[in-house]
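Write out a record, fold above all:
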Amino acid sequence: MYVDSKPNPKAQHLSDEHAAIVEATLPAVGENIETIAKTFYGKMFGAHPELLRDTFNRGNQKQGAQQKALAASVATFATQLVDPNAPDPVMMLDRIAHKHVSLGITADQYKIVYENLMAAIAEVLGDAVTEEVAEAWSAVYWLMADVLIKHEEILYASDGVEPGDVFRDVTVVDKQELPGGVTTYTLEGDLTKPLPGQYTSVGVRLADGARQLRQYSIIKGAAGRYRIAVQNDGEVSTHLRENVNVGDTIQATLAAGDLVLRDGESPVVLISSGIGSTPMVGMLAYMVRTGAERKVTYLHADESEETWAQQVDAKALVRELGGVTAKAHFRKEGALIDVSEYDVAGADVYLCGGNAFLQALRADLAALPAEKAPADVHYELFNPNDWLVN
């Protein structure tokens, strides 16, 4: 599921009265937003336990990652509604929409979120939430929801499916152990053709009866066949490694994700860390398959050569492409990626890794002088987070 168009949050406007109230109360909401988010999820899962059991990832909830992601998204959207100089949250909303369609989220579920979020705001802020304040923040929520719902409908339509109809029964036809505690699975079923860099949500039924979901980047994909790499962490990954073998049936969703390799002639720089190599290997495979004639730089960071799970695939693809500047950096040897040492001028840069890695690389790229700066920087996240939203 993918379209070139993006959500358009700048087309949304609050009334003057609501804007004044939101601007006045934004500091108080911002200071308490994580408490509000935590209270909200507690209320929503209390009223709808099936959402935690069958839709939301329990690991992310336990770590608080999902709550932080909600806090950042609501505060960021509200800010851009009242501050014309605030950053445009278009990329944040595009990323959220892709995550939603990969989980089969539908428009009717936004009402559940609204009711519990407003109840949480009222509980945390108490008497400060007058009828007028509640009405203003309700307007913020539904403006944001409207942007997301419309974009999600477009994404579903891009694969010719009804909203929410993204889960498919798939058969595991290959399972291979790689270094660094990584296992690859090849899945076959009624799957649409993915774009290079996209992911699929894999659903498994755990021992306690919960249907848990986790998203995995597609290393290599075609219509009817996805190959994914799974690092052994979390409930879903552990269940896959210990219980799912060749011949078994699980669920996977149609491919989604906004980190997609753009076709063209501009230079491409792929930078990854750890299992973040997965979408980059997918992009390398795509360029080999299509005979791309672009200047390519591939940089990877890992603990050591022994933990670099996809080095065999990556090195083979680099050889097939030919002329690629490729370098592995191993922390055990004290080697870190210094983007100033490489030619990224005018390039499309793609990043994937942990939060600290992405934060450092984005800062390093932003610090480059104008004549050495990339044309654009695209990135994918391992987990929900509260800082990397724009």
Q: What stands out?
A: Confidence is low (pLDDT under 50) at residues 384-390.
